[in-house]
Amino acid sequence: MNEEQLYSLRSEPPAAFVARLRADLRQSDASVRPARARWSLAKIAAAIAIVAVVAGLFSVPAVRVSAQSFLALFRVVNFVAVRVDESRLATLKARQLDPPHLIAERIQVLRDPGAPTAVASPEQAASLAGMEVQLPHYLPNGMAMKEIAVKGDYAAQVIADTRQLQDVMDTLSITDLEIPQGLDGQIVTVRVPPSVIVKYEQGPRVTRFYQARTPQVSMPASVDLASLGEIGLRILGLSPQDARQFSRAIDWQTTLLVPVPPMVSSFKQVDINGHSGIALERFVPSPTATNRTAVHVVLWAADGRVFGIESTQRAEDVVLIANSVR
């Protein structure tokens, strides 16, 4: 059975809650579901804060869970993974609700990074990105660097509009919570530094390594992140009690909620050089074989940077690669 955890990277929730939630998550992941229609994380307004790093790391169903729209309000330091209740996605889709713009109908792009720019060396990438480029020191035999690219910086302003959020809550019968007062019209400014993408190949196996400095998000101090986070967890499918306890147990200003879609077969916590990260596995059709190919994703943050690896290498090798980044 796949090991799945809902965990806090800042503080531990009550032990009874953890045990109950782990049991629920394991039961929900008894089998691997087929992949749905795919689209890039870059299309989600809520994921602006990490678009330079994880855009394209893994794909999600055509209708993305509403809670991810809260991510534009957070500064990415830690990652928390939560399994999505697929039935709730279907309910929202049937009502033609638009999760990607849940609380942000108005999004103004201040700086468009454009397409990644190919460079000849890590040193040139460092010069363009304005940071020292870290690379893995462990590579499986035969795995070699093939391409390096730099994606420019990104900036946007998001103006909150809660009308659709209320529609979503009504549709899902979330009647015991209220949207925090004063959220409408609030402006969130997101600035994402340049990112570096390194592609490695080993025969048919492909690995992409992403890194960027931590995005900067400016938001009004009056925004009640814990209340918004609780609403998001309820939309994902957590029970009222679990959502309340979990939303109070983590630091929402530094934690990125990663809704795990049905196409992801498993996810778990991993240790990367002493920093907590998450590892996910999904399957995609193989272009050269009848069997599906496993794709492994590892996300972590350390020392003011956010890192991601997407690879068709074995899961244990992907973790070894991540742990060798210096």
β-strand amount:
25-35%
What is the count of distinct domains? 1
Q: What's the number of helices?
A: 8
Low-pLDDT parts are 1-13, 24-75
N-to-C SSE string, H for helix and E for strand = HHEHEEHEEHEEEEHHEEEEEH
Mean pLDDT: 75
Total count of strands: 14
Structural summary, described in words:
There is one protein chain. The protein has eight helices and 14 strands. The chain is of the alpha+beta class. The protein has one domain (15-323). The protein has an eight-stranded antiparallel β-sheet with strand order 3-4-7-8-14-13-12-11. Strands 2-5-6-9 form a four-stranded antiparallel β-sheet, with no helix packed on it. The longest helix has 14 residues, at 15-28.
Please render the helix and strand layout as text.
Layout: H1 15-28, H2 51-54, E1 78-83, H3 86-94, E2 106-111, E3 117-119, H4 122-129, E4 144-151, E5 154-159, H5 163-171, E6 187-192, E7 195-202, E8 205-213, E9 216-218, H6 225-236, H7 240-249, E10 255-260, E11 264-272, E12 275-285, E13 292-302, E14 305-311, H8 315-323
Parallel strand pairs: 1-10
Antiparallel strand pairs: 2-5, 3-4, 4-7, 5-6, 6-9, 7-8, 8-14, 11-12, 12-13, 13-14
